[in-house]
Every structure is written in C-alpha cells, then in structure tokens.
Write a structure and sequence with these properties.
heterodimer, A: 180 residues, mainly alpha, Rna Polymerase Sigma Factor, Chain: A, Arc Repressor Mutant, subunit A, 2 domains, 8 helices, globular, B: 116 residues, 2 strands
Chain lengths: 180, 116
C-alpha cells in the first residue's frame, strides 16, 4: 500500500536531490509501474515495489547515475528488490509447504479454456526467478532489445539470451502441458 | 514462440487493471520527495575523510612496523651481547688426571678446540 507522509515532515535535507528525484519519478514511474505489475502477483505488490525502488533512490541519491543511465539504474534496483522478496518467499514456502500448495493450485476446471491458458502461463511466469521473468517481460511484452535489457539489468547480452531461452523453454513446457 | 507471446499479451494484467489513480501517484511522489529531503545534504568536505583515513591508517601501520622492528633489533643486539659476556664452555681448560699403581701421576690437558 502507498504510505503517505505529511509534507511538513520534510527535514533540512538536500532540496536539489529531492527535486531531482521528483523529476525522475515523473519521467520514469509509468514505465516502472508497468514493469513492476508484470513482475508482481498483484497491483498492491507492484505499487510497493515501485515505491521501495524510489525510496532507495531517495536514500542514496549519489548512486543514481546522470542522464539516460538513471532509468537503467532504477530498473536494476526494482528487479533486485523483487529478487530479494522472491528469495524470502521461497524460503517461507520451503518452511510452509501448505503455502506452496496454495500457490501451485490449478485454475478452476470450469473456467474458459483461453482464460485457463492465459492465467496458467502468467502463473508459470510468476514461478520464474525475477531476473528471468524480467527478461521475458521486457523482451516479449515491452519489446526491449537484448542489448538494452542487458544494459538495464547490468548483465551481459549472453546472460540475457540464456535467461530468454530458459524462460521460454519453461513456459513452453507449461503451454505444452495445457495442450495435452 | 508466437503462442507464448500471444498468451502473455492476452493475459497481461496491465490491459485489464485500471492502474494507479492520479491521487495515489501524487501520494507516492510526496512520500519519495519527503524521504529525499530527510536525507542529510552531502557535505562539500565529505570527499576527504576517506583518503585521509586511509593515509592515517597507512602512517599508523608504518610507525607500528618501525617501532616493532626497532624493538626486535634491540632485543637481538642485547641477546648477542649477553652471549658475548657469558664465558664459553670451550674457554674452560679441561684436564684429566690419573695416578698409576706405581704412584706416577699423569695429567692430560685437552686442547680447547678438541671436542670430546
């Protein structure tokens, strides 16, 4: 959920960096919200993810690179936050097998076939590691090129291709299972 | 892999969810800006503590190394001098005296270089 702080809570910090962050938010929040939603289970989680990304930027303004690299930096932070959350959830699932069963429950059998297919693919997408999921989402849905994904995630193009290949293979296995 | 892409597009939550309202976006923006203002402004002198600390640590290591080296040197010379003061066993003249049954006394004096 979005937490709102009163404006008068502002201390005597750097106004310049606050202004810069406000500008960065205005420019990049639509794209980050879309990406976060596609990497999250629901809208609330996506909002928290975006807010946490910008809060981290607010806490270390000197880390944010200048110019176009700022967007890549924000995307990288967002994906890393999601990775941390995913790891925590994975640990929790290992400790709580009932939660795992709940997450893996099949879609209701009386659903429409196309809805079943779509939701199953997205559910399978949820099970991918965040970086792999980010690669799939950025390439397949956002149309970002492989070199650009590599730059934004701070990995090599070879790694992006590998994640893309492995992710597609995992999702194709899910689709194949649906067709049978 | 067109099927996969099509399924992803069809099931994209962005297409079927309303998204954040302007009020929510502005609330999030305020939260972030307030957090940024809370952070202490970077001091213009904030660049120097790191190299200064590094230099101080190096100087401390150097002084420590020199003092330890000097102490070890003193100890070594004192040990050497103490060794010089203590008379060597080799300096002691050794004799072996025997008396034969006939009353003849035999005295052997060993050369100091001779190890027995």
């Amino acid at each position: 959920m979005v937490a709102t702080l009163p404006t008068d809570a502002a201390g005597t910090g750097s106004t310049a960096s606050a202004d810069r962050l406000g500008t960065l938010f205005d420019i990049h929040h639509p794209r980050l919200l879309r990406l976060a939603r596609r990497l999250s289970r629901d809208a609330d989680e996506a909002r928290d993810l975006v807010q946490e990304t910008f809060l981290r930027a607010a806490r270390s303004p000197r880390s944010i690179p200048a110019g176009d690299a700022a967007e890549a930096w924000l995307v990288r932070v967002l994906v890393n936050i999601q990775r941390d959350a995913w790891r925590r959830r994975s640990t929790k699932k290992r400790l709580d097998p009932e939660g795992e069963a709940e997450a893996a429950r099949p879609v209701a059998p009386d659903s429409e076939a196309s809805f079943v297919a779509k939701s199953t693919v997205w559910r399978a997408l949820e099970r991918l590691a965040p970086r792999r999921r980010a690669v799939i989402v950025m390439y397949e849905l956002e149309g970002v090129t492989i070199p650009s994904i590599a730059e934004q995630l701070g990995v090599s193009a070879v790694t992006v291709r590998w994640h893309l290949s492995m992710g597609r293979r995992e999702l194709a296995a899910v689709i194949k299972g649906l067709e049978q | 892999m067109k099927d996969l892409k099509q399924l992803l597009v069809d099931g994209d939550p962005i297409a079927r969810e309303p998204g954040m309202s302007d009020a929510d976006v502005q609330a999030m923006r305020r939260t972030i800006v307030v957090e940024a203002r809370r952070q202490p402004a970077p001091s213009p002198m904030s660049w120097w503590p790191r190299p200064l600390a590094l230099g101080a640590a190096l100087a401390a290591c150097l002084v420590l190394g020199i003092s330890i080296g000097m102490r070890l040197g003193d100890n070594a010379s004192s040990i050497a001098s103490s060794r010089a003061v203590v008379p060597s066993v080799r300096d002691v003249r050794r004799q072996l005296q025997m008396t034969s049954p006939g009353g003849t006394r035999i005295i052997w004096t060993f050369h100091q270089e001779l190890d027995l």
